[in-house]
Protein 1
Amino acid sequence: MRQIIQHFTDDDLYKFTMCCAVIDNYPRAQVKYAFTDRDNTVYPEGFGDKLIEQIRMLENLRITDEEIEFMKRRCPYIPIWFYTYLRGFRYDSKWAKVTQDANGHLHVEFEGNWSDTIMLEVKVLAIISELYHEMCGDLDDIDLDAYKAKSYRKAERLIEAGCYFSDFGTRRRASFAVQDAMVGAMKECQECYKGKGRFIGTSNVYLAMKHDLVPLGTMAHELICAIAGMYGPQMSNYLAMEAWTNTYRGALGTFLYDTYGWRIFSFNFSEGFANMFKGLRVDSGDNYEQLDLIVEKYRSLGIDPTTKQVVFSNALDTDRAIAIQKYAEGKCIPSFGIGTHFSNDFSGFRHLNIVIKLLGVKITESWTFYNETCKLSEDHGKYTGNPEVVKRFMEALDFRPSTK
């Protein structure tokens, strides 16, 4: 069977940066994750068995000297000790449990040390996406040259519109080859086409190395979710910002704020944090409404919002990014992380709407029970977790989705 993930750093940067912060701040934490298919997809017969085999294949991955030297050069904010950890890191398929029920639905769970299992999410999602398309025959007729041309035109439009944008497409890509072709085309466009905007890089560390780009990323919702499970959601954003600052000392200063909505984050976002972090990432809700709230918050703290970066990453495509760029000019420093639209934009087959989210956490292995956690965000359809836990967190936070 062909191994889908063939490189240790064929992964998003934020998994490495979060792993480092977890070891630095919560080295003994234990976690549980669960897979969600928002479209309740029926997977091909035998899919679960093939997925298990692919996860076992991860056990043969080793980080190379070339990958480490690239990360040291391009990611100087990562402490040197972390590379010693990565040299010794080994995947273990025992961390994952995979089943496929009689109706063809897929069930995936991870459990173990947070510093270990944190490295599974993106790789396993990428495997599921590519394996699904492969088993359905979707990849047979893909014309990579045509996809390169299509990607080049997207980059051309975004550069012309003044957008600073990056590829965030690893998790739900059609295949590694498709993402590779797309990143290469956008790099070529950046070098050949002159405009106000810029293709600034990719979240995929291996592809950044291959194409000599900057790997981009900071954190995911799981950091805030885990802290909320351990200590409660009210101060989870504050504690996450403290932990992040402890590890990165002001570097990697784009905070993902929407785990429990804008309102509670805004209470935790003090003048000190607002000055320290270079910006915020919008990943749910109405992009325009969220930007207005961010601008208003900075102004209330006496900070000029035009000096702050706002990264938009909420279900973007080329047209949406260009429209937001026009609205955001003069309000902030906008940039865009675009995922599925870059790495899985084909007519004739649909992309999977899949996530893996952290559901339980305990601060040390000596605890006899997990504390459940959940994710709320600004999109009602994106709540993840046990419905009873979601209800409890909403009550604890007096949760109210933002309104303009």
Protein 2
Amino acid sequence: MPANTKEAVQRALAHGLVIPAFNIPHLPMLKPVVQAVCDEDSAAMIQVARLEWEKFESESLERVAEEYAKYANPAHTLLHLDHVPVIDEDHLEVDFMPIIRRAIAAGYQSVMVDGSRLSLAGNIEKTAQVVREAHAVGIPVEAELGAVMGHETQQQSIPYEEIFASKAGFTDVEEARRFVAESHCDWLSVAVGSVHGAIADNMLDKKKPAAKLDIQRIEELENALGIPLVLHGGSGIQQDYIRRGIKAGIAKINVGTELRQPYERAMRERNDVAYAQECVYGRCRELIRDFLGTSGDAALLLG
């Protein structure tokens, strides 16, 4: 019987491996991503964030679940609900619990609530609320603490190196210790140097800065928390930092921009969905094989 999601992420941590989580901002991307994961004998999550049905073309979490059901392979893939914010990127309050409940009803195998724009106490309170409901039906919960650079922050105009050197918005170890103890989340997305893809119209196709990771901070967090860590904004990080970050405790890594941009470029070039799917498929296999190095991990993580 394939491992469940919580067990799979724990196996990744235990073996110094990582589970990629590929975002689906455009619904036709799902089929080639699943095919690439299977053809590389990899294990991965297929995920969608609220942002992607609000501002892109994944339509709804239910539509993604329906599409996933057509191509899912339990020996290789899992279905995850990515960012459901309590306060969204436009700084508006979100009625987040109904979204979480819809995802559980639709068959998502894990969910994420993002209270990172709240105070520490507020983030703990909202995360714990989701944890209580999700755990009651056996669904693990991802949470976030810290401010990942990019569309979550107001730091776009500040040079990346300056932000990295200052550690502005990086996840604090002691705050994280309290957060995990009181919220009971299953794994934690941490801010340690990565950059979220921009969503402004004039930035959608721009190359992200070559990001680094604070490996020492990852090690400190892992030692303090003892649960799997998650890296958002996985596209654009220098490969050596990715590999070192995985060894230090990153057990799940989100990848969005590296697949969204090839799809959107292909559609602009030819307006041909089949061609765009081919581009996504090829790029996804490259990422799995050459960048993340997760080819052949399926049996160990999901077997």
Protein 3
Amino acid sequence: MENLQKLRQRIDNLDSEIVSSLNKRLEITLKIRNTKKKLGKGIYSPEREVELIRRLKEIKHPLLTDSALEAIYREIMSSSLALEKPLKIAYLGPEATFTHLAAVKRFGSQLEYLACGSISDVFKEVERSNADYGVVPVENSIEGAVTHTMDMLVDSELKICAQILMNVSHNLLSRYPKKNIKRIYSNPQVFAQCRLWLQKNFSHIELIDSASTTRAAQIAQKEKNSACIASILAAGVYKLKVVAKSIEDSALNITRFLVIGNASAGSSGRDRTSIVFSIKDKVGALYDMLSSFKKYRINLTKIESRPSKKKAWDYYFFVDMEGHARDKNVSRALAELERQAKYLKVLGSYPQNE
């Protein structure tokens, strides 16, 4: 017992040192914030955040996993961002959606969150300065692009300043046992990601689209013999039972979210740049434009087309590439592309942190 008391006392002493160090860290953070204000710079620096996490993971810590270390520092950084006036983060809501989970994963629990009813509303809240940043889904590894987000990126002046990758697990939730369920609510993309499981287990049950997984959970909470497909967090928030866990068709079900704000991130040394352009109507135009990236040895990680909605058979091309827009080779390639393009817009440069 005496040894146990001594060990606990050592823990208490270490905790006091940790709290003291955290307070000193916050004092320095305040000085940095005041300096940024004088220089007219934004408070949130995604590139610095990624650099800090990378450096910490390089330190040998045999008992502390990388994920635990990142979770601890996510809350430390969240507390730093919440000093004086907390940042407000708009997201596609309501509470307990996967976008909400992604926002908290990126910014921590100490900030203020604003639930929005649509992707358009997230953009509007940031554009009107009712929120400092927004979080929106942009693509899923199974079902592909979220076209509404892509369309909004064309029309909005906001920039992509960070990305969030999140493993998504879908669950069947209800107040009723499986045999009593007569209809299931969820987001259309979620239904698509669980198509095989639903065909096998509920082939004759009505599937009803909802704006979000959380909205589906709200309906399932109130409606008789109804169920929803949503997150485990939604089960706790809306007092639903988990009828079946992890019903997605692929275990590698990853959704990519974007953080949007008024400026791109600075260079982190390992970045991604997203652009959108349209081409002139001539033979070989797309080939000629993409050849600039090969010339400057720039790796393209994604290319996707979307109708411009301004003219029949007129398309926008969305391209992701490795590197920051300020990098010499990327800058040169974009300059060549701009001379050839009918329209070109840099959507943002941001860290490839995951």
Protein 4
Amino acid sequence: MNRSIIERDQDYVWHPYSSSKPSTPPLAVASTNKHELILSDGTALIDGMSSWWCTIHGYNHPELNRAAKEQIDSMSHVMFGGLTHEPAVMLCERLVAITPDGLDRVFIVDSGSVAVEVAMKMAMQYWQALNQPNKRKVISLRRGYHGDTLGAMSVCDPVTGMHSLFEGSLTKQIFVDEPPMGFNEQNIRFYVDYLDQQLSQHKHEAAAFILEPIVQGAGGMRFYSPAILKAIRELCDRHDILLIADEIATGFGRTGKLFACEWADISPDILCLGKALTGGYMSLAATLCTKQVADTISSGEAGCFMHGPTFMGNPLACAVANMSIELLSNSKHSESNWQQNVASIERALVDHLMPLSEVSGVQDVRVLGAIGVVELDAPVDMGVIQAICTKHGIWLRPFGKLVYTMPHFNCQGKDLTRLCTAMANAIDDYLKEDIEVN
């Protein structure tokens, strides 16, 4: 007798952020198409998560498929040490052209966490090359998230980043309070003064200040004012500290600007990209830096940057990334209207989710670009709320007290209305069920 994929999964597979013996089994996906996950039983769910925020063009996109198929016939992979190839060079050219001014060198890696590790290593080697090896700590915002490898974890929020589980293994970094909430918040003087004091106190040991510009993602889905980001850029310059912008989640249009740094019209010294870089087709990330940072590192004792992933510059991933950027920038593609699409998603999220702010059990509702967040008064029961979402025909992956969505940019019209309506109804049903249980 054939065993189901879920039974086999539960015997052998360990999923992210889950027990090896989960109480709620995963859903089995047989295929994907445009905005939908097609389950093995034929059920179709609209994916409101963009597969953890990366599939901005939707699933099974014909142009991305074509780019992958064409590249695999000529070269799927070749080492990047001492060799180069057209897909990687073209990708680096394009990234330099579309990112904030001054980021002129690109180091291609294979995941977002590694992009952050590389950024931190760049900052440390930079100051070592300038004969200031004491500047090796990283300043980070509380409520931030930067990845799950040990170096990246060290700059995640100490509480939500689970530092207590890895006590003694993580580097002790410098944490400052998170920015006050509110994209349009104007009363920031007290917070900027506080940061000025903190950076002044730690400037002799701080190599860099790392942050997620405008949107703190997995640490709480918090939006803050562009004025704060602009002030931090000025403070880093004043106190001689490099600024690392982690745009792994916000890059490629998610907030309504191609990069969230554009809201404050600033450019970091080092920029981390990932997730949507390939449109969600495969893992690829990049760390960009200024020519000054790159040249200073290269003039140091080592004479080079000490990092080199095996799959760095993978041609197949680079070819798909090039097409994803092409889809966003070329007027002959409908996806080049991504700004209009994101604005349309923002309006729909506001219309359907904001009324929930009046519902008992809801603490806050916030929307920015193609990000919609409903914060409840209490942590959600994952098994219960996901079953309710599935019943309503959508896929969401809440965490903590947050039920949120980040739709594909081309999820428009009836599909967008269906997603937003179902999300609002699912939250309403969950809260009513919770009241009945208690």
